[in-house]
């Protein structure tokens, strides 16, 4: 832990995890475990992730799209500032229609994107296709309302095709 320069109550904390804690090839598992769990730690009053270094050997196990922040900035036409995003909450119990309403309100309210919680897949109360259709309707409506490119990141880690 290092003190933040010119600040008496802020610190840099460097955290390391054994890579064997994470499923090979699953960046989603790695980020959900680290970011989701750490940011949910109630003992920490405020937290900001500044950097995340992933071993090259682990990255080579990932077979997903070879895009990153540069491509997302180009897709969303957002440069010179951080993205502003959020995870849809509550994550359980919403219908697809109400989930889409939350997505629309967040995007219309100024967020650049929302994302599915890592635990949302295709449960009986809200199937993936239904969530997709209502979320995309919300994205398109928010683009029309704001004139800005908006997005919603869907969890597509389910084992079955819908």
For the termini, the CA-CA separation is 46 Å
Overall pLDDT score: 87
Largest sheet, in brief, is: 3 strands, parallel
Helical fraction: 25-40%
Number of helices: 5
Strand and helix order: EEHHHEHEHE
**β-sheet strand percentage:** 5-15%
Number of strands: 5
Q: What is the approximate shape?
A: globular
Total domains: 2
Q: Radius of gyration in whole Å, from Cα?
A: 18 Å
Largest beta sheet: strand ordering: 3-4-5
Query: Spans with pLDDT under 50 lasting ≥5 residues?
Result: none
Look at the helices and sheets and give the structural class: mainly alpha
Commentary on this structure:
InterPro entries: RuBisCO, RuBisCo_large_chain_AS, RuBisCO_lsu_C, RuBisCO_lsu_C_sf, RuBisCO_lsu_fd_N, RuBisCO_lsu_N_sf. It catalyses: 2 (2R)-3-phosphoglycerate + 2 H(+) = D-ribulose 1,5-bisphosphate + CO2 + H2O; D-ribulose 1,5-bisphosphate + O2 = 2-phosphoglycolate + (2R)-3-phosphoglycerate + 2 H(+). Belongs to the RuBisCO large chain family. One of its GO terms (molecular function) is monooxygenase activity. A three-stranded parallel β-sheet has the order 3-4-5, covered by helices on one side. A two-stranded antiparallel ribbon has the order 1-2. It contains five helices and five strands, in the order ββαααβαβαβ. The mean pLDDT is 87. It is mainly alpha-helical and 162 residues long. It starts with a strand and ends in a 9-residue tail after the last strand. The longest helix is centred in the C-terminal third of the chain and has 19 residues, at 128-146. The protein folds into two domains: 2-59, 2-Layer Sandwich (Alpha-Beta Plaits), CATH 3.30.70; 69-153, no CATH class.
């Amino acid at each position: 832990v290092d003190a933040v320069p010119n600040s008496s109550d802020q610190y840099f904390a460097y955290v390391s995890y054994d890579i064997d804690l994470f499923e090979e090839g699953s960046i989603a598992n790695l980020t959900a475990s680290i970011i989701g769990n750490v940011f949910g730690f109630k003992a920490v009053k405020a937290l900001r992730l500044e950097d995340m270094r992933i071993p090259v050997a682990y990255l080579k196990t990932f077979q997903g799209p070879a895009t990153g922040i540069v491509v997302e900035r180009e897709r969303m036409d957002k440069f010179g500032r951080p993205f502003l995003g959020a995870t849809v909450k509550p994550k359980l119990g919403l219908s697809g229609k109400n989930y889409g309403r939350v997505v629309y309100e967040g995007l219309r309210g100024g967020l650049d994107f929302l994302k599915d919680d890592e635990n949302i897949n295709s449960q009986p109360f809200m199937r993936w296709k239904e969530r997709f259709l209502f979320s995309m309707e919300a994205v398109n409506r928010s683009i029309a309302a704001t004139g800005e490119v908006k997005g919603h990141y869907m969890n597509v880690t389910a084992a079955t095709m819908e």
